[in-house]
Write a structure and sequence with these properties.
The chain is of the alpha+beta class. It has ten helices and eleven strands. It is globular, with a radius of gyration of 19 Å. The N and C termini lie far apart (about 55 Å).
Length: about 290
């Protein structure tokens, strides 16, 4: 029986610190299915909830269940020994660090495969989750700070087309802002800007204790040039409730409001040494649910 398959070619706009199965000691980086699957699963949960995510991608919780779809890496899985700076914004070059990476411009492709028990609705949501990852997501270490920014081979070419694509995929409840559009910044400059955030655990996460950043950045490429996309959770997303809980634990008085006003806090707190953010935020487009005050 031939299984229904959808092919997704894409490329990396910024260097990707994907590592490999050998762990941190390896001097090579490679594109692998498990990390891709994890990121796609995260976007599925964001758009359609945990129950749908577990049903489509499988779960070990309670009685457990198998996945109803599969991902296969079709091209771009070669090992790379090239290196890049992990923290490009650091003024101390010794603290920037170097790690093996998949270089910007690297092309790859995956297949999303529909397994026999996958319903039409599950299949539709799985396809949307992959597309969401390609439009809003990244891959690897520092992926929330625009490293490993992926971009589909058939991308939206304008901000309006991008807005429509995201809304069509079911994530209108997110707060999304385009940052640096028209500023003639290249991908490395934009990643450096995204990497330079202040210490604010409820908005940007923290390393101690390890807390993922609910605000996510990636580099995108439109006809008029590259820019950053900042994505923050709205009230209807699963991210919002988890982030609100963390914020309340750290600052009970200010936590709830800070979660509701993610992008406003981004504007106020980002380092003034990165004028790309502040200038572009003030002029960022307002449309639909792409909220920016």
């Amino acid at each position: 029986m031939k299984l229904q398959t959808v092919h997704h070619p894409f490329l990396f706009i910024t260097d990707c610190f994907s590592g490999n199965a050998e762990g941190k000691a390896s001097k090579q980086s490679a594109l692998r299915v498990p990390p891709i699957r994890g990121h796609v699963r995260m976007w599925h949960q964001c758009a359609f909830g945990l129950d749908s995510c577990n049903r489509v991608w499988g779960s070990t919780a309670e009685n457990g269940s198998g996945s109803r779809v599969s991902i296969a890496l079709k091209s771009g899985g070669d090992f790379s020994a090239k290196t890049s700076e992990i923290l490009p914004h650091s003024e101390d070059r010794k603290k920037r660090g170097n790690s093996p990476c998949i270089s910007a411009g690297h092309a790859a492709s995956i297949d999303l495969i529909r397994l026999p028990l996958c319903s039409r609705d599950d299949w539709d949501k799985a396809q949307k989750a992959v597309r969401l990852w390609l439009l809003l997501g990244s891959l690897g270490l520092r992926s929330n700070r625009a490293a490993g920014s992926v971009w589909p081979a058939d991308p939206p070419r304008t901000p309006n087309a991008f807005r429509q694509a995201v809304n069509d995929l079911g994530l209108a409840q997110l707060q999304i802002a385009l940052i640096g559009l028209g500023k003639n910044r290249n991908a490395d400059e934009l990643r450096t800007t995204a990497s330079d955030t202040v210490s604010r655990a409820d908005i940007f996460g923290t390393t101690k204790p390890r807390t993922p950043s609910p605000t996510k950045f990636k580099v995108v490429d439109f006809e008029e040039g590259m820019c950053l996309v900042a994505t923050a959770p709205g009230k209807k997303t699963g991210f919002y409730q988890a982030s609100r809980k963390r914020a309340h634990q750290q600052n009970p008085m200010a936590g709830a409001r800070s979660v509701e006003l993610y992008l406003n806090v981004v504007v106020m707190n980002l380092s003034s040494s990165r004028d790309c953010f502040l200038d572009a935020m003030r002029a960022a487009p307002r449309f639909g649910n792409f909220q920016l005050q």
